[in-house]
Design brief:
Low-confidence stretches: 277-283
Distance between the termini: 45 Å
InterPro entries: AAA+_ATPase, ABC_tran_Xtn, ABC_transporter-like_ATP-bd, ABCF_ATPase, P-loop_NTPase
CATH superfamily of one domain: P-loop containing nucleotide triphosphate hydrolases
Strand order of the largest sheet: 5-6-7-3-8-9
Oligomer: single chain
Keywords: ATP-binding, Coiled coil, Nucleotide-binding, Repeat
Number of strands: 18
Helix content: 25-40%
GO molecular function: ATP binding; ATP hydrolysis activity
Largest sheet: 6 strands, mixed
CATH class of one domain: Alpha Beta
CATH topology of one domain: Rossmann fold
Structural class: alpha/beta
Strand content: 15-25%
Shape: globular
Radius of gyration: 26 Å
Family: Belongs to the ABC transporter superfamily. ABCF family. YbiT subfamily.
Protein name: Probable ATP-binding protein YbiT
Number of helices: 19
Length: 541
Amino acid sequence: MISVSNLSLRYGKRTLFEDVNLKFTQGNCYGVIGANGAGKSTFLKILSGEVNQTSGSVAFTPGERMAVLKQNHYEFDENTVIETVMMGHKELYDIMIEKDAIYLKEDFSDKDGERAGELENLFAEKDGWNMESNAATLLSNLGIKEDYHYKQLKELDGNQKVRVLLAQALFGNPDILLLDEPTNDLDIDTIAWLENFLADYQAIVLVVSHDRHFLDAVCTHIVDIDFSKMNIYSGNYTFWYESSQLALKQRSDQNKKLEEKVKELQEFIQRFSANASKSKQATSRKKALDKIDISEIKASSRKYPAILFNNLGREAGDQILQVEGLTKVGNDGEVLFKNVTFMVNKGDKVAVLSQNSLATTAFYNILSGRDKNYTGEFKFGVTISPADIPNDNSDYFEGKDENLVDWLREYSGTDADEQFVRSFLGRMLFSGEEVLKNVKVLSGGEKMRCMFSRMMLQHANFLMFDEPTNHLDLESITALNNGMKDFRGTALFTSRDHALTESVATRIIELTPKGSIDRMMTYDDYINSEDVAKLREEIYK
């Protein structure tokens, strides 16, 4: 168990947390959520001892082992991959190192023999003889092939390092597991494996993630950081979100009787319990129903940007986009995709997939005109006005020395006055003096909101999005998700956000080095299709 008592953290005059009292118990997974800057990652660092709180205390059940997903991708560069994973169980790893060092001594003494015997017993008790094979299995489950297991970590690319460090955190079944954005750079198969692993994990897990589907799949509770306080709610992220929206609605219903509000809340909880995808989530919610108090669920202070794309400048005709034999080879000679051919229908919302993110980015760069080095051809219909959100938006901000108002006015038309631009920025959560902030100092999330503003002002009827949820908080992801769902035009998009892809896509096109797979179906149907699985296995074997 973890017990947090009267915890406070202040930086000068700024208070992140104030008098926080929480208990985290065995067998539960807690999703830690909050607006950007609320202190989600900082709270995990306090629990791990990396950051000291201003006041209060954190206590753990004696003997429990904690593991943390490391964020420093260079810390273990000189170690082999398999060794890096085994280092996740520090006590067992230290026993192995000391034991091996004793056996290598030239002047091996009786005392050394006694110590070696003690270490051998400890090593066996902690399943040390299966240590290496367990680490190898974990690596394979996370997509690191055996060929890499005995290479130095510095020989791996960034995506592979993330998986190795995740394996390190999971290794040896720690009693307490702290994970900060564990799904970053993982593919859909690896995320699915991790979801199943954590859903059945009988330890204490605290996770920070912007992936709503992941939070829904693994969390039994949500820790909401709001108003400098932390509250624990039973259920997953969607349950918390819908209940907070219900609380906001009920707060505005001044004339509704308390009995009616309680009945509405109970019906809401029962509906979610009935639809629970994991048995332990359902049990958690049913227990919550027995003791729920209407006053416990509070309206959130979160603000959601208004991301709306339906101000279309021109109605699209029937000819949308024709792609014929499109092929792209990377600078290193690797075939990113080959002979891709398809026709986009009016109103299609196509999720473009690939095992290689370089392939999808290259695909959008070709369609947007940024990349001319390809073979094959494509043609937009004469009525189509495309707009896109690129994976890398640095070209829109680097070298600019202007404030947000002046930056956005460039895309607003010559007759747009400052008041119009300010009001538009306000809808994107830039208020007051923030609109005069220089674009050079914007955060990644702020730049993305600016890019959405630019796209909205283009009044396009064909939209392209390459990883648009990068750098966004949960509130902006939710707003974008709703805006893409409601968009009346045609769209191509690539996103690692499972919930967004499942709720928006009506068609899936997967780019491969041997052609493309094209299916008129939802994302979940696609990844669960036996027909598609066989086809992908044939392509990638």
